[in-house]
Write the structure tokens for this entry.
Amino acid sequence: MRRILETLVPAAPLILLFVVWESAARLGWAPPNLLPAPSLVLQRLLELLPDGEFLHHLGQTLIRLLGGFAIALVVGVSLGLLASRTGGGALITVVRVLAPIPKIALYPAFVLIFGYDHASKIALVVADTLFPILLATFHGARAVEPKLLWSAWAAGSGRFASLFTVTLPATLPAILTGCRVALLIACVTVFLAEMISSTDGLGHLLSLAARSFRMVDMFVPLLLISLIGLLLNVALQFARKHLLRGQS
Amino acid sequence: AFLALCGQTQAADDIPTIRVGWSIPAEEMKYWMMRRPDAFPDLGKQYRIAWTQFQGTAPMVQAMLSDAIDCSSQAPLSLGQGAASGGLQAYVLAQHVGERKGESFSVYWAVAEDSPVRSVADLKGRTVGVNVYGSGVYGQMAMILKQNGLDPERDIRLVETGFPGSEAALRAGRVDAAVMNQPFALRAESKGGIRKLFSLTDLMPNTVHIFEVCRKDFTDAHPELVKRYVKDLRTAMALAREDRAETLKVVSEVTRAPVDLLDGYLLTDKDFARSADARPDFEAIQQMLDQYQQLGMLPAKVDVAQFRRDDLIQ
Amino acid sequence: MEKRAMIEIQRLGKSFRIAGGKRHVALEGIDLNIREGEFVSILGPSGCGKSTLLYMLGGFVPPSSGSIQVQGRPVTGPGPDRGPVFQEFALFPWKTVLGNVMYGLRQQGVGKREARERAMALLHKVNLASYADFYPKELSGGMRQRVAIARTLAYDPATLLMDEPFGALDAHTRTVLQNELLQIWERDRKTVMFVTHGVDEAVFLSDRVVVMTRSPGRIRTVVDIDLPRPRVRAELLVDRRYQEYVVELERLIEDVHHERDAEPAPAPVAKTTLKVATR
Amino acid sequence: MEKRAMIEIQRLGKSFRIAGGKRHVALEGIDLNIREGEFVSILGPSGCGKSTLLYMLGGFVPPSSGSIQVQGRPVTGPGPDRGPVFQEFALFPWKTVLGNVMYGLRQQGVGKREARERAMALLHKVNLASYADFYPKELSGGMRQRVAIARTLAYDPATLLMDEPFGALDAHTRTVLQNELLQIWERDRKTVMFVTHGVDEAVFLSDRVVVMTRSPGRIRTVVDIDLPRPRVRAELLVDRRYQEYVVELERLIEDVHHERDAEPAPAPVAKTTLKVATR
Amino acid sequence: MSAQAILQRLGAPLTVLVLLTLWELAARALALDGFPTATESLAQLPAILFDGQSLQSIGASLARMFAGIGLALLVAVPAGLAMGRNPTLARMLNPLLSAAYPVPKAALMPMVMLWFGVGDLSKILVIFLGVSLPLLYHSYHGAARLDDKLLWSAAAMGMRAPARLLRITLPGALPEVLLGCRVGLAMALIVMISSEMIARQSGAGDLLFNALDMALYPDVYAMIVILAALGFALDWAFEHLRLRLVHWAEPRQDAASGGNS
Ligand SMILES: Nc1ncnc2c1ncn2[C@@H]1O[C@H](COP(=O)(O)OP(=O)(O)OP(=O)(O)O)[C@@H](O)[C@H]1O
Ligand SMILES: Nc1ncnc2c1ncn2[C@@H]1O[C@H](COP(=O)(O)OP(=O)(O)OP(=O)(O)O)[C@@H](O)[C@H]1O
Ligand SMILES: [Mg+2]
Ligand SMILES: [Mg+2]
């Protein structure tokens, strides 16, 4: 009983949202040609899920999403750690200049450089998710208690090695927060890339449906990306719990 | 919608306002009205216009469905889909641009000069660029491919380049055939190295590209207002055609394209066709709607009659 | 039998920039030579710069003036020859107790298995073997302090820089660890800099006791503790000389506290001839 | 003359979930009554649960079993009647020394000016007046500890819960603050729970001393300290009864340490008849 | 020492110069139509910067951006802090948030237009959503990692929970909150532009996307340069503010470098 309640609490707002949405659609609070009932969307989603072609689109999106995120994670954490050490000032200037650029404007160049396949979309995801991770890592690393580093150096750990044995684990909480932000941005960006120019992926399905005003079909990818975001976040939360079991 | 009122820049006095959506690059009538309002005696005095620019026609259908705008520029496909699937009810009141075989520019697909692709059929297995997958232009291309024995879904690899990115994609070798529209076609031609493969006039001589649409409920409620608007649109068309030099300036102000570039095609035979009275070509529209239905891009037959309100067009 | 100086501190000073933008002088004109294998304690009022001195010896913080040489070479940074035990412990929160103690060994290239064994042996000594899998946040203050001590002892640095290492321990545990430390020291002849507030602890453990003035810290006096070694607590406690040392140091500390800030501190006496305790 | 119980602790126990998922018992079956205005010290081995006990008294951490009543009402949360001094100080890092000490006063609605004056007076007492504008990170360990003491004394809670409050101080400063605390206590008759590792400190300050067993902590013995008040250090140090208390408590602590874990802890003796020290 | 100081002063301009040179070289080497060289793009700057209307557009965008940021600060920071200190609240809101944030705002434009019109309000909303993401999560985790004993101390002084959120949790988590702000500020410029992608009135995004639509790539990149400069200036100003606000938390000046080497 208690367990049921415990799993229900986090789900409650989502359920509430669904109820409100459903009644909004059913009771005509929102025009049905703009907002379809969630039950219809869910039903369509369940119809589509076993469909091979739909799964292919889903797969394409996931490859771009996770591929881009993984690259941003590795690059962002490495650069952030390096920038936190002396001499990293130049790197931070570069970040300052590049971070606020709307990456979407670079997309034409990405397409010409990387082609119309995965690479250009992954590049866009990387460009959008890199900086949240990099900045979080940088600030986290700068705030590491110096005595932890001193302890490591005194124990014979080299400057470079201590980056991984001390700075990285001590920065992990900040990095994971950056990841959380970046992961959600990645979800949005991959859709944006697929909506602008693509012939596959969920974003493509969405813009196709939107252009022909098939609202139920349009909300299927939206619902799916929500679910993906939710699942990725749950995964991240587990990772966080495991990785930070000693801390906080 | 009540929130829309707060966000909207409402006219302080009781001069009626039309909320109009527009886009670039080929709506000279609207650009004139935006940039040279003094040339229109009623504008600003009898009625006002709140302009909002959109990326493409589909968002404008959505905006009309959301009651966020009253009138907008549309293309046959987006209007047809809006009507068939979105429940949009609207009138087509003026035509911005179309094509006229032999007299005007026609959207075409280009290949590199030295490309082995010589005919449409040669496109089999090639990468073809299109502005937007599922757009009207795509539909007509698909029709042409079919007529040449190609299955547009299987026999070619399609990528979305958009009109602006088309030339660059072709030159970078990312596509084998690229879709060309003005002013990008002119720029590409002047640099050379490309060859026309086929154009939309191969399919039909009088493709309609953009026309003006107003919501039915809005028009029926404010017929006088819409009438004034349509009248001014026609005045703008006349002005645009008469005073080309000024039109070049106006368009340059709006699109920020340099006058030199515009001078190369705008309102010449390298440009789309405009009719003096800006009258919509309903027949051509119907023909296009039928093609789209044939291709499965429209779920049902859309009768153009529902978009007519002749008393406003005279 | 004079041994050569392991650590040479000359006219060492340190000032900090504080939030207002002003500078705060923490230490001034410290002169001190420490021989190899010597056990030197530092006594001084709270805030007089004892920790700061250790940081500079460790090479963690650069001096503002003066110089420090260890084995004839200027200190440019930390090294595994000088092992610190920080006042705030500074345990790695992401590592278990065992992981913390193994860290230094692993850094020195000791194999996992051996590192584990040696770490566990040390944990037994500090009476924390049953807490090997705990994380620092799950420990009490005194337990953390013991882990910090074990972590540094584990990789066996030639010099120990210990900042009130037994401050959070109960009397019994403290005595046990004092004896443990003395044993290690007597066996390996480490050089030890030992900051403490316990006068009796300082006398019990040290060859020399440095008494510092109030902030800004200078060296007030250096007292040689001429007591036989190995020292046994029970014997020492009834030794008259031991008691005299304690009384004398307590008096010195009282003096330090009652010297007005305005008065110039007496000239440092670090250069007194060193007498090696008879062993 | 029996005063009524200020704090009633019954069969109190606390266990923690540790990282592995297991539970670790920190405290077990604590029974203790503390009268209003009583000064009770707690002695016990490192890690036996002294801090945990104070956390529960403060209402910061809920007990796993048993109950605590303060003035007849169960503790449900923290309140300004019980002021803690934490072992790790827990200063507000974004406030200056002065800001930290003023904080509680301002919280109680004392005007800015008055709060400032009272805070400065306290800072003078802990000898930190010239550091009023420093931020916590710019202080030495002992200075931080003094700020923490001043911060709690400032808002004048009826009960003080002090966790090794003088642990990081040098002997002189410690004596000064002990006397200060005694004065405040004698004037305001606060109830004080005082965790310490200093047996002499406990005897010098307390009405009763609670000795705890090794982890999991239980109460081993409660010793009444039947020494006259007001107590003067110089007199006390030569008082035979004082020395006897110290020796007895030291012996008790030794015993506690040598009791095997396996042995059942002796029955708690908290309910011994309380004798109020003659004053 | 002074040479080092000079180098430090010149560091940022020097880095920017290197960046521009790299861009120039890369663009020349690639010779792509959609990727103009630095010189071509910088040449377009005066046309934009000396045009009153363009400046007004950029100003209008910035005004919306600051409105969005202000809203995000007011809503996301308290919400994040509350989630950080209240696990039940966090458990309830987390799924909702992680399901809501991934939804591309562009796709919801019809609904947004329906409820908020095509004007400033809907754009401010989109900016708010973008900026609130890092603010919320950094506040959340910052608050969750706060040392309990600080809150205990305040509670023992008689401070109630809502006041603790404002006066203890907020300052205690401030370093992390401000990190969220720094990320949010960079994102604000990005969202400011992308909020103007679909429905445009006068704004910086309008300038940029029009140039994109016309394939005027040097203009696009000139806008990018302007945005980068704006971002740089904002970040620079914010860093100063940040250091003033959290100087108490910065590790010792000479700490991370360690030693006097
Ligand atoms: N980062 C800093 N910024 C400014 N002043 C500092 C800093 N660190 C230490 N100080 C000052 O330097 C002086 C010496 O500090 P230190 O920690 O060395 O004292 P200590 O002798 O170890 O004291 P304690 O016995 O209390 O630990 C103090 O007055 C302190 O205020
Ligand atoms: N958060 C926690 N999780 C798990 N175990 C804990 C936690 N906090 C304390 N403990 C355990 O509870 C026991 C008592 O800890 P506590 O801090 O109360 O000890 P203490 O008597 O104050 O010791 P010390 O004198 O060393 O400060 C210890 O064994 C410790 O490991
Ligand atoms: Mg210190
Ligand atoms: Mg404790």
Q: What stands out?
A: Residues C 140-141; D 50-51, 87, 163 surround magnesium ion (ligand 4) (CB under 6 Å). Chain A has a mean pLDDT of 89. Chain A has one domain: 56-241. DSSP finds ten helices and no strands in chain A.
